[in-house]
Amino acid sequence: MTFTFRPLDPLRDAELLHRWVTHPKSAYWMMQDARLEDVERAYVEIAADEHQHALLGLQDGVPVFLMEHYDPGYRELVGLYEPLAGDVGMHFLTPATGTPVHGFTRAVITAVMARLFEDPAVARVVVEPDVSNTAVHALNEAVGFVPEREIQKPEKKALLSFCTREQFLTATAAAAVTA
Known about the structure:
Elements: E1 4-7, H1 14-22, H2 36-47, E2 52-59, E3 62-70, E4 87-93, H3 104-117, E5 124-127, H4 134-142, E6 146-152, E7 157-164, H5 165-178
Parallel strand pairs: 4-5
Antiparallel strand pairs: 1-2, 2-3, 3-4, 5-7, 6-7
């Protein structure tokens, strides 16, 4: 699967995002009760923030997933761990679908990680999924993430995990051999 990326337009993409983030299968996104204007406002704030960015992942020009990345020294993880130079935080969301495609979410996280590591300044990706989100823990492990410890964020208990460029390349090379 081949994906491209474009910056999210908070106003133009708000209805699409609203459908995605309020779906029951997107519970870990924590926007289940968000109104359209809440989603719009949240992404306008991200767009205006130099320390975080939102992109849409496209397949054949059609939005099929959401990617967010942030500077963990300024957002999400401030005071919860000691960031290193080259750290970048990441979130991704694949929307619910009535016709799941085998391997789609794994392809998405692989594309997201590859996109992040295109920046030579990025040395390590940091994630902080909910401790109970076992599906994303398995995906994270598949692309090279190593859990460090549980942390308490204001909104959830999270599993702080890291993936270096080398860990990602090793994991994806191993996956290519077994595919």
